[in-house]
Amino acid sequence: QKEVEQDPGPLSVPEGAIVSLNCTYSNSAFQYFMWYRQYSRKGPELLMYTYSSGNKEDGRFTAQVDKSSKYISLFIRDSQPSDSATYLCATHGSGNTGKLIFGQGTTLQVKP
Amino acid sequence: EAGVTQFPSHSVIEKGQTVTLRCDPISGHDNLYWYRRVMGKEIKFLLHFVKESKQDESGMPNNRFLAERTGGTYSTLKVQPAELEDSGVYFCASNGGRAYNSPLHFGNGTRLTVT
After folding, report:
1. pLDDT, tens digit, for every residue of A6-51?
2. Of A34, A92, A103, which has the smallest distance from its Cβ to B42's Cβ?
3. Which chain A residues are closer than 8 Å to B48 by Cβ?
4. What b/e string do you get for A51-87 counting C-beta neighbours within 10 Å, with b at 16 or more?
5. Would an 8 Å CB–CB cutoff place B2 in contact with chain A?
6. pLDDT class for A96, splitting at 50, 70, 90?
């Protein structure tokens, strides 16, 4: 079983739609969770950084962590064609280490 | 502030040859990481430097891979001899402060193709 599972998609939505991206993780000791966005031929770019359970909002993006079900989500409101990218969930894992454990990434296409 | 820079952006080599990848972290970042993504798989950790010291090299695939960070500034990752399965995108990342609660900043990667 992978430590972080993410449906690779692809996911295609019309412009303006609400997008829901999800990951599950295996270890309840994981604490820090991140969402990265990666455009083609570019490196991952940090979108959201959360600690433990709850919601965090930044503009059109909301990150949600549910530790009871080991489930993390990223919601994108009013999606735009410029949001078309691969979205990666990641966690620092259980130790005090900088090592990140990534999901496989979900490819999102927002059609105008 | 300049971001994490990697060189070259793309390298094509034959099996058995040697390739050296370079990473320049964000100035002042003590933590430097190497990651790799092979086709169809998730990005995976290779190793972590704190300044010039290897903090964690648990992700290095085998002894054909050698990473260095002389002087605690830029880092190199050498693959010698390269094998077909080494093809993929190699990312470098850096962060400052405590490694585990500071977000990582990634470079654009080096796309390595071994033929």
Report:
1. 988 899 999 999 999 999 999 888 888 999 999 999 999 999 988 8
2. A103
3. 97-99
4. eeeeeeeeeebbbbbeeeebebbbbbeebeeebbbbb
5. no
6. low
